[in-house]
Amino acid sequence: xxxxxxxxxxxxxxxxxxxxxxxxxxxxxxxxxxxFVDYRLEREQQRVESLASFLLDEYEQQGxxxxxxxxxxxxxxxxRATSEDSPTHGNPGHGGSSGHGPGPGxxxxxxxxxxxxxxxxxxxxRQSPNWLRRELLQNGTLIGTLLYAPPxxxxxxxxSTAEQRFQQQQLQATWSIAGLSVLLxxxxxYLLARLLLVPIQRMGRATRQVAAGDYSVRIPxxxxxxxxxxxxxxxxxxxxxxxxxKLRLALVADISHELRTxxxxxxxxxxxxxxxxxxxxxETLQSLKQEVVQLNQLINDLHMLSLADSGALEFELRPxxxxxxxxxxxxxxxxxxxxxxxxxxxxxxPQLPTLQADSTRLNQLFSNVLENSLRxxxxxxxxxxxxxxxxxxxxxxxxxxxxxxxxxHLPRLCExxxxxxxxxxxxxxxxxxxxxxxxxxxHAHGGHIHAHHSPLGGVRIHVVLPLxxxx
Length: 471
Prior knowledge:
This protein has helices spanning 5-62, 72-82, 161-211, 226-274, 282-310, 323-341, 359-376, 422-427, 434-444, and strands at residues 110-113, 119-122, 132-138, 141-148, 318-321, 343-348, 355-357, 381-390, 393-401, 448-453, 457-465. By secondary structure, it is an alpha+beta fold. The strands form three sheets. The chain has a five-stranded mixed sheet, with helices on one face. A four-stranded antiparallel sheet has the order 2-1-4-3, with helices on one face. The radius of gyration is 52 Å and the shape is rod-shaped. The two termini are 51 Å apart.
């Protein structure tokens, strides 16, 4: 039989509760027995003290033990006078008077002996080395001794009807309390099991919904304990999955759109050539080549970005990398192209501390930024490249002139396939993946990249690279 979680919790809590009840019941019973033995011993001692006081008073009046010696009835009256309901230990075979004293056929195990241990009254038929002694003194002279047996250490051995009745009542009360405690423990175990299991069941249902593709499900949070924290983590996970799914759908749509445009142009141009509507002139072939180059660039960017996201993009982080030399190479490569478009490129980079980096990937990062400035900056305009070192690392700034970007678009410029103006970007050949790849490269070096408003009127790309890379 396979037990479900509810039954396991219920049985575990109930078993623990029953174990505690049994342990507490046993401890209470043991404490009661020990306390009852002490109570009986103290009561016996009080009875003996009362009897001793009575005998001393009578002896002082009579001057000897003649008033009780050999007279069983007077001995019984003395016992009754000192304790009307005294605990006694029976000795069958000895008679006794009726009345308020011990019942018939019971002889109390208490005796009075003289100074020479001769029996004066009572019974010594069960002499024991454990008997207790109470000496009777008059003016410092020993006139007799009371010998009495202590109550047995076993609290279950009771001779008094009242004691037996009291013990039975206590035993019945103990069993009744134990039974009610077990019922209460069962009820509490049931409620606790349900209380603990309800949020887990709720999470199970929500997990199945998420597994089925419903990322909008959320778990209500009713507590701040571990289960509440688990619900918060689940909601955060579901929200992240929903955002990822939304991004995935948008990415598929954007990629499909990006691929469809050059493919449609290629298909149209090729069909026109096949139908004889256009001639295979150098200009036509150059147009086809340009579409193939754009398509190939998009595929390469997507491939590199997927490698960066999966951690498979290789980086060779070498120490003592000269960042100024990398920036100088990018400057030399893009200066003619920018000037050909009517843009002036300037660089203000002093000698910088070396860092641990991959020079090829950093060259790719700054080339992508300069490529964006080349595509989107209006002529006449300018692009300024400058850098300096601070305590937190090397700061590199690439500023370009108008047009600028609205403030709400700046935080999203490094998102993949994000464009401020999709139609304009597509016309200029941008894939919307360059800055996203730059962000991955900066993060791989332990740095970060941000977009801001440029003092030149366009966009400032701010890159921060730490001097010592920590993986």
